[in-house]
Amino acid sequence: MASGNLLSTVPLANSFEIAKEISTQKVPNASSSAIEFLSLIGTDEIQPCLFEESLVAISENGQTIGTFSISVKWTCYAPEGRIEEKCYLVHARSKGTVDGVPCMTSITGYITNNLETVEQHVEESVRFREHPVETRTHVVKRQDQIFVRKTIIERDEEIHVNSSSYNCSLLQGLVSDSANLLVLRVMARRQTVPENAIFLSFDSDHHICTSTYSALGFQKQHVGKEEVDVFVIERAVHSTEGLPLNWQFCFLSDGHLSRRVQVGSPVIMLLQQVPILIETDEPDPHPVFGKIPLDWEEDVELFSQFLDRKEELQASHATYVRRHPELSNLLADFLQLLLLRKPDNVVTFAAEYFAPFSAQNPPCRSFQSSDKPSPFLSRV
């Protein structure tokens, strides 16, 4: 991002032409804490960060000189020859005038669920009357390589093209300009910033460099007629050449940006009205029911059910006996014979007594083996 412009980005192109000469540059390494921080950001945490917001650009003397907007939403990304996948579409745009010169900066990026940048377009333009200058930068990931192509256009004519490529395995912890807008919202909602974490980023010339985030604490800010608490984050991009670039971002509790300042720039982005804050629905905790000992005799309802069931069974049994008078005669005969014989093994005696009534056993003379061991008793 150039310090003289309001922001940094671009409209999406349908194809990517790689220059004939591609330079491979040595890149620094991100810290393990930065890589871990990015890996722990889940989809459920990013979901509340998908919204649009708009600020105004204010000059040093307090005049409104432009607008600044950011939009993050779901979309489908399907480059030529690849399977379609869902990702985040991040679009930021600033437009205004600085010292009477129209300036425009635009960023469009496609970010995966893992916060990896698969494609990004950056466009910066300064419209001098006789000498308009436009810079276009295209970043695209293809297989295990990231290609960067930067083009400078003056008076509608390409005057400089620079291309470079990087191995993706060397870019762990990379936070592009578009991914940065999403990461900042996550940090703002957490109200924490990873300490001593070193990320990778693109500098103003789109060379790979390091970047850091710092929490500056909470401040009071007037937004419209209201005074609100904001969480302040400072981001520094340590360019490979020249001084580092610094930005300060002030956020409301839900991730809405309330103020953006680029150190050294005369332009400040301010929120004009407090938006309706985004609240996430937290599920109610599952109820926990303790185990209560059951004493059914003391429970009036259960004891009443027991008595009702007891009377119901007694009435059912009495009805069955009345309908089958032979049952009383059969049991009376068995009990009379049992008392006359007085066998030592009552179970075997009962089995032999009722055996002739079974349809599965052949007929035999009753009580021939009253003294045999009972087949119904286990042997010790």
Automatic annotation (TrEMBL):
Name by which UniProt lists this protein: Ciliogenesis-associated TTC17-interacting protein
The UniProt entry, under InterPro entries, shows:
CATIP_N
Q: Does the keyword Hydrolase apply?
A: no
Q: Name the species this protein comes from.
A: Eublepharis macularius (Leopard gecko)
Function, as annotated, reads: Plays a role in primary ciliogenesis by modulating actin polymerization.
Q: Which SUPFAM superfamilies match?
A: Dimerization-anchoring domain of cAMP-dependent PK regulatory subunit
Q: Which UniProt keywords apply?
A: Cell membrane, Cilium biogenesis/degradation, Cytoplasm, Cytoskeleton, Membrane, Nucleus
**Keyword Membrane applies:** yes
Coarse class of the primary localization is membrane
Transmembrane stretches, start-end: none
Localization annotation? Cell membrane; Cytoplasm, Cytoskeleton; Nucleus
**Superkingdom assignment:** Eukaryota
The UniProt record lists the Ciliogenesis-associated TTC17-interacting protein N-terminal domain at 34-266
Which family is this protein grouped under? Answer: Belongs to the CATIP family.
Q: Which GO terms describe its biological process?
A: actin filament polymerization; cilium organization
Q: Which GO terms describe its cellular component?
A: cytoskeleton; nucleus; plasma membrane
Q: Which Pfam families match?
A: CATIP_N
